Amino acid sequence: MKKYEEKVKELERKLEVLESEIEDILKIAEEGVKITKKTLIEIRNTIIRKSFKRKLDEIQFFKIYKPQVYSKVIYYVTLFNIESKRPRSSNKSIVKYLNNYIDKLQIYFNENLEFYQYYRRGATFLDEQYFLRGKANMRLYPDTFHFLTDEQFSTSHDSTVATILAFDMLIIHLKKEVDKLEDNGMETNVNAFQKESKLFWTGNKIDLVELIYALHSSGAINSGTADIKELASFCEQMLNIELGDYYRTFLEIKSRKINQTKFIDKIRESLLKKMIESEE
Fold first, then answer.
1. Which has more confidence, 197 or 166?
2. What gap in Å lies between CA 86 and CA 98, rounded to an integer?
3. Confidence of residue 145 (pLDDT cuts 50, 70, 90)
4. Position 97 confidence tier, pLDDT thresholds 50, 70, 90
5. pTM of the prediction?
6. What is the DSSP letter of 195?
7. Span 181-204, pLDDT tens digits
8. What is the mean pLDDT of the chain?
9. CB neighbour class for 164 (10 Å; exposed up to 12, middle 13-18, buried from 19)
10. Least crowded by CB within 10 Å, which of 51, 173, 198, 228?
11. Average pLDDT over residues 95-117
12. In the predicted model, is pLDDT for residue 143 greater than 70?
């Protein structure tokens, strides 16, 4: 498996260079597809020539390594389609267009919720059905027919994993684009409460991001109408911290195999302990 891990890292390095050297998003998408397809073909040729020694190796390849490469193809192809049709009008129209696409991508997760939850929580009990070749079962509702047309290099759900990874990346990209377009308005909102604070967040950044998303999802602020960026900016100002790419951090939280709400659980336990101690 080491060689496939190295292939994935090599691909990611090439794509990082590509995105740092080219500004035109459509050109990045075109070149990204070419680079990624080349890697995918190289890996496919290796897989067809050599058989896996163990079932676990085959599962690992189709659950982890192939999706990491194939997801980049889906990402760049979809990115090209989205950006090539971006309205050439007001920022308001573009924001609406991008947000509509974000909603469409989220629908995919809802339509594949059972498998999405299985994958995100790191479950393994159906791995032999999902990630071994020749185990295709139409009753498992795969979202693709690649496993029928390329049985040597596909399982029923490896492309579903790839699509989940690709759509996660696309949502991050689109939300960043929306943030850029809304920045002027946001700066005005931030300045309204931008007084120098003497409070500092001394915990981990990932814990604060977990807390911010929990507050957002609870609807406890502005009756649930507050934007994630607005909440994040407020916390950064009030707690003197730079959160960085909190969208990606949230994806890391979602992908935890154990205890996705680690910090929320921790502060709940701390509060309960405080209540007990105060009664003594």
1. 166
2. 8
3. low
4. very high
5. 0.71
6. P
7. 887 544 444 444 445 677 889 889
8. 86
9. buried
10. 198
11. 89
12. no
> Does the pLDDT of residue 136 top 70, yes or no?
no
Residue 146 has pLDDT above 60, yes or no: no
Tokens at 171, concatenated = 């949502």
pLDDT in tens, 240-270: 888 888 888 888 888 887 888 999 999 999 9
DSSP per-residue codes, 202-228: -S-HHHHHHHHHHHHHHT-SGGGT--H
What separation in angstroms does the CA of 96 have from each of 87, 102, 193?
10, 10, 27
Tokens read off for 54: 């163990």
Which string of b and e fits 174-204 if b means at least 16 CB within 10 Å?
Answer: bbebbbeebeeeeeeebeeeeeeeeeebeee
Q: Where are the alpha helices (DSSP H) in the chain?
A: 2-21, 25-49, 55-60, 66-84, 91-111, 113-120, 127-131, 146-149, 158-192, 205-218, 228-239, 246-254, 262-279
- Alpha carbon dihedral 178, 179, 181, 183, in 10-degree steps, equals 160
Give the residue carrying structure tokens 């994993």.
161
Distance, CA of 140 to CA of 77 (rounded, Å): 26
Rounded CA separation 164/168 (Å): 6
Cα angle 123, 128, 133 (rounded to 5 degrees) comes to 135
Domain coordinates of the chain in residue numbers?
A: 2-180, 193-279
Give the residue from 58, 19, 10 showing the smallest Cα distance to 38: 10
Task: Report whether 41 contacts 153 (CB < 8 A).
Answer: no
